Amino acid sequence: MPKTCPICDHDSLPIGPIVHENPTKVAGVPIDLSDSTFTMMRCSHCALQFKDPLISMDLLVECYSKSSTDQWEHSPSPRKRRFDDLAKCITTNASGKRILDVGCSNGALLDYLTSSSSSNDQWECFGLEPSEAAAATATERRVTILGALFDDLDTNNPEHRFDVIIAIDVLEHLVDPNAFMKQAANHLSPNGIFIALTGDTDAWGWRLQKQRYWYCNLPEHLVFYSRPTIEFLAQQLDLDLIGYTKMSHTRSKISRTVRDYVRNTIWGLSWRAKGFGIPPLRKMLDSNTPPGWLPNKDHMLFVLKATK
Ligand SMILES: [Zn+2]
User: What pTM does this model have?
Assistant: First the structure.
């Protein structure tokens, strides 16, 4: 039976087997996946890549909710985490000041947005967050926590409409991206915008290492997008794609950028060459994860706008 795409229902083709990091953990909480093998699939219609099988959302949410608050840095470096770029994207595209951060963690980004805005430019900050520990810190930062997930909101409640909805490092965790995006669209005010940061499978490095790329090795990363997938979703939801920027998740020093580039290029070429016919090298490449590559431009920051 061909596996159908979780977004567009078209058939998909296998790319290859996934190797998760060992021991397997989700948000720092151990998860037992020992009985399952995972294959990366690619949809022939909307280009979504996804793991087969998908890990159940209930199991993942259980891990997120058990996660301790120190899983997230309390005060991440705004420069390193590109909060300046995210805040600029929000302020230049927003048509109002009510902002909802889905998966807001400890509220560090909203805190940065508020503190970097002028006093007559104040944001009304709301958040959804499954981790109780992180949500408690966000509340101290004057973020109004409305629940854990979109399911905790009511589309008929005008208080649950927002000028800006942001989802940073969220979309890759979804079992049902359609349902999530529909909920996001339903909670936008007229002319509201949806901003997301997630991995971009079109990135160089990702295309070299395919399903073995570092971003795919985290068990909680389930679905992987590129621009055609976002365009497909936008069209389905009557939203306009008004912004699309490729960027790295983290700003790194040039020495780290060069080091990771060299290491990962060698790893990718060796893996593609099946270890150059050397059995122990091939075995090592097939069973171990590649080096991390945080400085790579492997994310996309995109903006969707409600057209009505
Ligand atoms: Zn598809």
Answer: 0.93
